[in-house]
Amino acid sequence: MPLRRHWANFRCYDCTFTGSEAVDYLHELLRSNYNFGPEVTRYQTQQLLRKFFKAHVIEDVKGRHGTEEFEDNSHLYRFPTMSPLKSLPTRPSWRDDSDLPRLIRWDDYEELPQKENVAPQKSAVLTSDLWNKRHSVAIGDVHECKLIRRREVTSKQVDHIWKSMTITHLQRVLGLKTLDGILNPAPVIGKDIVVNIYNVNKTGIVVLSNKMLLTFLGLFPPGPEGNDAKQPLYPGFERDVLRTVADYYQRLKEPLLTFHLYEVFVNILSLLQEQDKATEALQVSCLLLPPPNRRRLQLLLRLMARVCHNPRLPPLNDTIGTRTLMVQMFSHCVLGSPDDMDLDELLATKLVTFMMEHHSAIFQVNAKLRCQVEEHLSHLKRAQIKYAGSDTDFSASPAFCKQIKRVDCEEQKVIGTQVPLQQLLEGLIADQELPAKDKRKRLKQFQKSYPEVYQKRFPTEESKAAVIPEKAPRLKPHLVLFNLKKPFQPFQRSWSFRA
User: Fold this and answer.
1) 214 falls within a domain
2) What are phi and psi of 286, to 5 degrees?
3) Domain match, 365 and 414 both
4) Are the CB atoms for 219 and 241 separated by under 8 Å?
5) Where in the sequence is the domain holding 430, given as residue range(s)?
6) What's the rounded Cα separation, in Å, for the pair 20 and 159?
7) What does the alpha-carbon distance between residue 249 and residue 411 come to, in Å, rounded to a whole number?
8) Which CATH number covers residue 258?
9) Is 101 domain-assigned?
10) Which of the listed residues 322, 351, 370 is the one where a domain comes to its end?
């Protein structure tokens, strides 16, 4: 609001505005705003300013507000010095730097302020050598390592992962040991699964690049409000629309669930008594559909459910009910086998009835499957640590693990630990540069730590003596100089003594 000096009753008031100026300014502002538009009238603007006046957003020059009406004239108003909003809690200002909490860094060696009655500790500067020495003692020597990144995961690999993990999840839900004879994984396209999961709108319907729009849903709105008044109505209008929809679906070359997935959905029929399990199986199975089929199927089931739950809809057939009519009319468009069988109609009716009743849950993406696949893809893209001299290839896929018996596990554990220890012992024995004294000391430590390996290598004293040099006897000086059993003889100059 532009503010300026105004005169009233032989007095001047700075930073004020008249009622007419306020209406002019706010009216123009509202008309130019796209949230309101040019339809805003001057009277509506005046009513808004009256609400501002009562809420103490503005006040008159004498400080009054709310007791009088805001007028569109030359009366003077101003903004109050205090905000009409509630005061915000003020944070205490840190003026003394000593009160601020200080973060300790590795290169920060200053002495921290000591508490009272506590003896100050001597500050010690940890050099890099001292720091490495302390940590090498605590956690052992850490080998040099480097970060490596996996190879970039291509879109083709992402599609393959989605395909394999979805089929595996489906097999687990169906409770089958194998899908042989039920599903051939070759025709399944991983890219279709990705599209069915991610290329959806807010209502969960697949969005295609070449959008196939079905406007029939608007002709059967749910609820008591009935049809839109703008749509042309005439006797039999609803029957003509339903006949048009049925004609569209009946002209499809194959059922929406496709011939390839026929056996999969037939096996799901045995799970219909367990609603949660059957719903999960249908969630995963419908991800294998081509995106156009999934979109058509979801729109059709929504249409059937809306027609069945619309009480204001007139009868669509003179002999059978609406629910039975919808199932009979579209069941063979949803499920069917390549060979015309008498059993197909019964199976299709049973499956379509269940899918129509639970279509909202069926076309939701299975959260468990999606979480598993996304975690696996995230793991493939994650950087790894590789130590020097390690030949481990982290970019390879996880190896296949097979459960073994406990006896075999214990045998492998013994073999896996004893072989390196035997090699270590042989290397210690064959070391020629190691002094005999140090070799005997280390062999004694090895015997104490791994007695079984040591006993296996040296079963007898003879085997030990053949490999390990014996310790030479050391004469004591007083026994050499003085032998009390023999008479004393003078020393010969040819004798030599060791210190």
Assistant:
1) yes
2) -70, -15
3) no
4) yes
5) 406-467
6) 67
7) 65
8) 1.10.555.10
9) no
10) 370
* Structure token digits, residue 484: 């009390």
The neighbour count for residue 464, using CB atoms within 10 Å, is 15
- Where residue 291 falls among pLDDT bands split at 50, 70, 90? very high
Pairing of strands 145-148, 76-78: unpaired
Q: At what angle do helices 343-357 and 291-308 cross, to 10 degrees?
A: 80
**Domain check: are 297 and 231 in the same one?**
yes
Single out the residue of 176, 397, 197 nearest to residue 284, CA to CA.
Answer: 197
- Do residues 255 and 185 both lie within one domain? yes
d(CA 170, CA 280): 9
- Residue 280 counted as domain residue: yes
The predicted pLDDT at position 297 comes to 94
* Section 18-38 average pLDDT: 86
Number of H helices, E strands in the chain: 18, 6
Place of tokens 């058509």: 296
Alpha-carbon distance of 140 to 16, in angstroms, equals 77
Written as one letter, the residue type at 437 is K
What is residue 2's predicted lDDT score, i.e. its pLDDT? 87
Residue 59 has phi, psi (to 5 degrees) of -145, 165
Per-residue pLDDT tens over the stretch 82-118: 766 554 444 444 444 444 344 333 333 333 344 455 5
In the chain, the number of structural domains is 3
Together in a domain, 346 and 412? no
Q: Are 329 and 239 in contact (CB under 8 A)?
A: no
Q: Are residues 175 and 289 in the same domain?
A: yes
SS3 content of the chain, % helix, strand, coil (to 5): 45, 5, 45
Exposure string of 387-418, with b = 16+ CB inside 10 Å and e = fewer, is eeeeeeeeeeeeeeeeeeeeeeeeeeeeeeee
pLDDT 10s digits, 183-200: 999 999 999 999 999 998
Two tokens, residue 236? 């039999």
Q: Six-digit token pair at 177?
A: 């040991």
Do 209 and 355 lie in a common domain? yes
Q: Which of 7, 2, 11, 22 is nearest to 77 (CA)?
A: 22
Residue-level pLDDT at 469: 61
pTM of the predicted protein model: 0.49
Q: Of 117 and 225, which is predicted with more confidence? A: 117
Cβ atoms 225, 384 nearer than 8 A: no
Quickly state the pLDDT bin for 131 (edges 50, 70, 90).
Answer: low
Q: What does the block give as tokens for 66?
A: 């709310």
* 343 belongs to a structural domain: yes
Interstrand relation of 384-387 and 76-78 (parallel, antiparallel or unpaired): unpaired
